[in-house]
Amino acid sequence: MQRPVKATIADVARMAGVSKATVSRFLNHRERLLSPDIAARVEAAVAQLAYTPSPMAQALSHGRSRLIGLVVADITNPYSVAVLRGAEKTCQDAGYLVMLFNLGNDIDREREAIDALAGYQVDGFILNTLGRGAGLVDVDALHGKPAVLVDRRHPGMHTDFVSLDNPAAMQAACGHLVEGGYRELLYITEPQKGVSSRRERTAAFGDCIAANEPGVAGDVFESTGDDSEALDAALRALHKRAKRGRRAAVLAGNAVVTLRVASAMARLGWRFGEELGFVGFDDPEWAPLIGPGLSTIAQPTDAIGRAAATCLIERLRGLEGPPRQLLLPGELVVRGSSAPA
Amino acid sequence: MQRPVKATIADVARMAGVSKATVSRFLNHRERLLSPDIAARVEAAVAQLAYTPSPMAQALSHGRSRLIGLVVADITNPYSVAVLRGAEKTCQDAGYLVMLFNLGNDIDREREAIDALAGYQVDGFILNTLGRGAGLVDVDALHGKPAVLVDRRHPGMHTDFVSLDNPAAMQAACGHLVEGGYRELLYITEPQKGVSSRRERTAAFGDCIAANEPGVAGDVFESTGDDSEALDAALRALHKRAKRGRRAAVLAGNAVVTLRVASAMARLGWRFGEELGFVGFDDPEWAPLIGPGLSTIAQPTDAIGRAAATCLIERLRGLEGPPRQLLLPGELVVRGSSAPA
DNA sequence: TTGTATGCGTTATCAT
DNA sequence: ATGATAACGCATACAA
Question: For a tag on chain B, would you pick the N or C end, based on fewer CB atoms within 10 A?
Fold first, then answer.
């Protein structure tokens, strides 16, 4: 005796003895008066049939799908997942569903992702992609739909942008180390390529060093996943400089680099906070468990995701105006790895 | 001079000088002969206009959306994300897009998630949920669409099921510890409640102990996130038993528990492989970095995700037959935490 | 083989 | 205030 087929607007109309148009109006334009008795009848029918409009049909007709396309460069990245989580929740709460497209670090598929998502009439995009490469989207590849960029800017695409306040975060990290007596700093980042967040952090690191010269010296090392020898060598060189009476510390550009550095320290038999100080961007759950605990810059990932979704939804509701930038503050989490002398 | 509006089948038909039906046939039923010249004209028009059918319209008309609904209990869980990654990739490769719904551990929203997804006409479901609670879906809540369960079975819902081979994995872990000379085993799991995978692992642990009695003794402890004292006490009790000349080891039911145990060990000032041996389910990236390295049972998460998606897509292609079970083998990764005497 | 007409479930534009 | 009807973009019986 079950109704496996969902009730349609026609069913409701028939049961209420009115036209489909009336039912539609009841649902969408409650403000406009409809005679109370008719409204009551429609309401009853809707309740009885447990009627819910088909989002697909709505999308086809009215243009809006209540779908948001989320493109992420690499879902393996815990940062991306953390952001995704906040964004998805906010979308859900606002009645939007998320369509996910993972690029798997295939930088050239960005355009493909946008197009696939646009095919499903998504109302807007949240983009956490590299912002470079062959598949790079120009602003009008978005099919006229609004987008918000997360963590990484795209050259020439001026849309809303949400990210960590990289300069402030880097300054907090550097300041903390300098205060702790560290004088030789090495910033280790993934290859910058064109990725805006990496460049911003590296630039901010340079600014911090410049501001503390000549007492403090700094260097930058680009680490790739496949050359642990180079990383070890860089750490040894840093340590050698420390030997001349200047304490040395490493700054890691993200959690992936932090992991590499931790592995290198294990290989070298060194301890965080002893041979080398350490502060890393991102605050993974395992940071407290490595050696004396890793000091970190915790990103407000959840807030970033929520802000991105909120930003987009505001645009979908018609908010006009120039592109906005939301730069959220990071939080310095002090643990043993950056212990002062 | 750009065309911001996507070409429709009508545009193609007009340009080719044929009817929409002919275009549709050209796209969907290439096998049926259409006169070569007409086919050529349609093909040219399609290419020229860069025409792509609207999946939404197709879904509305033809019923199929090429959308797959993915419901996950908690996207914070790295296991879920790892599975999601494999599944999403396989779906993409098969031309399906993934709609994501995260329950955020709100066990009662499962039904809501299914309904929301079904509203968008998803062709099928991949479910990595708890399988209990008020919102539990019965088999016909799926609106007649196929589903595949991942990691957790649902009582009374017989659909395809993909998961780690829990008994074999537990046996490998226990066997390894017993061989290494460990005699007092403690299995620490999240509260089992009704979750099938937790129950299976606990049961398998019991079987392993039984098979090794009386030489080996085992106990089970349910750990919640908010009572570290209880966990510490359990570890102390275990260690006390070890003192009587029987080496003791902990088995952790998943990565979350592993993290809790590692914190506890740090609090107690104990070292893995010394005071207590250790093997944990799941192989997080940081496992090598905790103490002498944590021995683990690595789950083939990517393969599980791929298998789940493949399973579902086969059903979508019409595969009939009784529900299938895919039990994938785990891999014992030996590190320092389970060093023999 | 190809074209015409209809339906999928809604919303919106007209009348009434 | 309400109802008929035409889109929306596509697929498919049916007619030719």
Answer: N
Answer whether B2 touches A (CB < 8 Å): yes
Radius of gyration of chain A (CA): 26
In CATH terms, the fold of domain A67-163+302-328 is Rossmann fold (3.40.50)
Ordered by start, the domain boundaries in chain A are 9-53, 67-163+302-328, 166-299+331-338
One fold for both B67-163+302-328 and B166-299+331-338?
yes
Residue ranges of alpha helices (H) inside chain A are 9-16, 20-28, 36-49, 55-62, 78-93, 110-119, 166-179, 196-212, 228-243, 255-268, 301-316
| CB contacts, 8 Å: B288 with chain A | 263, 266
Shortest Cα distance from A320 to chain B (angstroms)? Answer: 20
Predicted model pTM: 0.93
- Do B75 and A88 count as a contact with CB atoms less than 8 A apart? yes
Higher pLDDT, B6 or B15: B15
Partner residue opposite B286 with nearest CB, options A85, A102, A286? A286
The sign one gets for the Cα dihedral A94, A98, A103, A107 is: negative
Is A65 within 8 Å of B56 when comparing Cβ atoms?
A: yes
B-chain residue closest to A118, CA distance: B54
The residues, ordered by sequence, that sit 6+ positions from B105 with a Cβ below 8 Å of its Cβ are B73, B74
pLDDT in the model for residue B136? 67
B3: pLDDT confidence band, cut at 50, 70 and 90?
very low
* Residues B38-85: tens digit of each pLDDT: 999 999 999 999 999 999 999 999 888 999 999 999 988 889 999 999
List the CATH code of the domain at A166-299+331-338: 3.40.50.2300
Q: Is the CB of A60 under 7 A from strand D?
A: yes
Nucleotides of C under 7 A from a protein CB: 1-5, 7-13
Q: Is the CB of A56 under 7 A from strand D?
A: no
Alpha carbons B10 and B30: distance in angstroms, whole number: 19
